[in-house]
Amino acid sequence: MSAWLKSSTSWCRNALLVHLVLFLLGLRSGFADLSFRFTSQRCADQPTQDGCCPLEALVNVARSADGIAPRMLIGIGAQKSATSFMAYLLKRHPGFLEPSRKELSYFNDDTRSRFALEDYLPHWDASQASHKDPVYYEFTPDYMPHAFVPCRMRAVIPNAKFLVILRSPVDRFYSHVNMERHFCKNAKLSEEFGVSKKDVCEGTTSALRPLDELMEAHVDALARIGCTFDYGNNTKSWIDCQSAYDGFKLDRFGKGLYGAQLAWWMELFPPDRFLILETNEVTEDPEGVLDRVARFALGAAEAESIDPPIINTCRRNTFQYDPENNLHSTLERLSKRYAQPNMDLQQFLSELYTMDSDLVSPGIGAELSKHIDWSEVPKRSLKSYLMDWGPIYYVMNFFQCSIVWKRYRRYSMAGAILLSGVAFFLWRSVLKRTRYGVRNVRKKLKGSKNLQE
After folding, report:
1. What is the pLDDT of residues 65-109, one digit of tens each?
2. How far is CA 453 from CA 267, 439, 440, 443, in A?
3. Which of 2, 38, 154, 435 would bridge with 263, disulfide CB 3.0–4.6 Å?
4. Alpha-carbon gap, residue 209 to 216, rounded angstroms
């Protein structure tokens, strides 16, 4: 028995030594088991080498020297993960400088003729800063799935830090499609969010298609190029997939493959530049999250020297969900599709960060694995029907999200209905007067014509 224990101890010691050697060589065995490729920042020093940034990603990119750009915090994703709420929190903090709009969509604009720091910085007005050395921030959720973006950022803002918020990819997919369906119903709402109604309402990937057909269309498109990341061993990276499929960066299913996306970003930027949060943490503890983000971007000492802002916990850009046939089975199939990528993401993060790291939320694993039970979708409320009409949407957002009305949020629904009723009766009275006026003119014209005869 003692001989067996002695040999087992020796084997364990040797295995640990081998693991340590592989770790020091950057060949840690865990990375080889992932469904996406990661080789620990091999593209950081030479981003144009084979398998890294293609030349088309760096066309018309003006490279900036280190230290020229101001301190920057770039929110890169994921879409439909409380990013608008997070942008509102940053806007309230004196240590951050607000951009001209939440989503600048600068680095993912493939039609842009030039990417340069002098063209990027005018989106902020430094004279509006309340802090002597603020952190410039923006939050464009479409940055993370666009494989060319980190290549361009590496050249233009090489010292930037990044904020990532992750949500269950199943819920994110359904929320994304549901948002686009609301855009289809409301042209003004679509314009307000900068989305083309034609793009989301027409074509083979229209958001109005049944959810199961839409899911299968996206999954099939990725499966044809081997980029569903639910099988294989370390064979492809995110940039390989975008180069093989033009619509890859717009794929609704692909936007939930967080592991492959983050692995590609970390080929170009070190892991300590990323703060990775989960959606529930942002919505349930906004004050704590804002303090954590401030410490990450500003530094602990500087963040403590700034008085915390008053925060309104109202959520932004929320849309009611519509009942749909076979919804539960469709989302269950989505869960199976995302199961392997989610496990790979958790393994990937555990390899890069320690368990007590402040850079990764401890609830990431639970957030990725759970999804809302949509087996019984509740019937639509009166509020959801009213929100489909553009004016009501903005009135409701004012009542729910204004600091002035925060104390009286329980009356927001009644206030919105009251204002809507007043607007309706005013419109009706104007229409009635106009209608009667036209009738009287017609009668007078007809009477004068009869007198002439």
Report:
1. 877 889 999 999 899 999 999 999 999 999 999 999 989 999 999
2. 91, 21, 20, 15
3. 38
4. 11
